[in-house]
Amino acid sequence: MAIIRRITVSRARGFASTSMSTRTLCRPLATTSTARPKSSTLSRPQARVLALATLNKEYEALERLTEERVRALRRALDEASKPLFERRRQIVAGEGAEPTDAEVAGADDDDREVAADFDYDDDVGGVEFFWLSVLRQLRVGDELVVSAADEVPLQYVEDVRFATEGALGAKNETVVVSLDFHPAARGAVLAADAPLTVSCAYVRDAASGRYLRSAGAAVGWLAPDCDPRARTTWHPDGSSTRAARASFFRVFCRCDDFENPFAADEDDLDTAGDGNVLIDDADEPFQPWRQPDLTAEVLDELEDAVKRAGDLFLHPRDEDEDYWEEADWGDR
Question: How far apart are CA 309 and CA 159, in angstroms?
Fold first, then answer.
């Protein structure tokens, strides 16, 4: 009998609790209270709209906190992936030991089907034209970033690096883009004493992602004609003029203030170095210091390509499926 009594009390309590919750949920959303907010001289409508504003600011604070955490996770990813990208560089450049069975075990059937076409006698080492085939797929909208003139020097690129630097939580961060050329580039497209590594550092606002300024080292081209950023036109009298044209290498620019187009380095404004450069309006050359929004798109596309280069090399985008068959590589 005692057991039955306890069950009955328990059920009764549960029913009472349930009824209370139901009554609470069924209360109307709007209250008919006429009381003003405590310690306030605000009217009720004023208090409502200011509360909405406060809630929005609280959301923005959560959003900023989340963005900071995402940036921290991306930095952690960049740090963890460094050994992978270093090993990729060694394989592409033909340095270090050949890949082991364990290193190729993760490839799937599609990868192996593509790799079957690479079964040939190897006298060179490494993977030729790896970065050229990756970078030429860069697109912003429907436009290619790499021009036909860019393909000649890009044949000699051994590694591309994309790194984000700066303290977490700082207002600005620095994005560094670097190209490493093969030594054979000297005497072919670069001067004999030209650095084999070319870098450009972009400073951007960490919160908005907007680029503010850049500092890039000039590429040591062998001759003006090797510079893909300009086209040389020879005239019957033996004189020549050079017209600026679209080029991937315009990424390596120097500009102290992207809001001020005239703050760009003269080397980028005057690719010939003699003041005799014309702007070819039909070509609409990509100029980072005049197109900061487009620069952000190009760098975002480049970052993604650098991180997924192996997949882009084996499985080109649809537009580039016949690239290997159509390309006339020439001799390195």
Answer: 10
Q: How far is CA 155 from CA 90, 129, 228, 274, in A?
A: 17, 5, 13, 28
Cβ-based neighbour number of residue 294 at 10 Å: 16
Gap between the Cα atoms of 182 and 196, Å rounded: 7
Full strand arrangement of the beta sheet holding 240-244: 230-234, 240-244, 277-279
Q: Which backbone phi and psi does 246 adopt, to 5 degrees?
A: -60, 140
Question: Minimal CA–CA distance to 294: which of 145, 165, 134?
Answer: 145
Q: At the fourth CATH level, which superfamily is domain 58-105+126-225+248-262+290-326?
A: Nucleosome assembly protein (3.30.1120.90)
CB 321 within 8 A of CB 281: no
Which residue type does 24 have? T
pLDDT at 71 over 70: yes
Residue 259 phi, psi dihedral angles, 5° rounding: -80, -10
Which helix or strand (DSSP H or E) is residue 232 part of?
strand 230-234
* 101-148 per-position pLDDT tens digit: 999 999 999 999 999 988 777 777 889 899 999 999 998 888 888 989
Q: Are the C-beta atoms of residues 242 and 250 closer than 8 Å to each other?
A: no
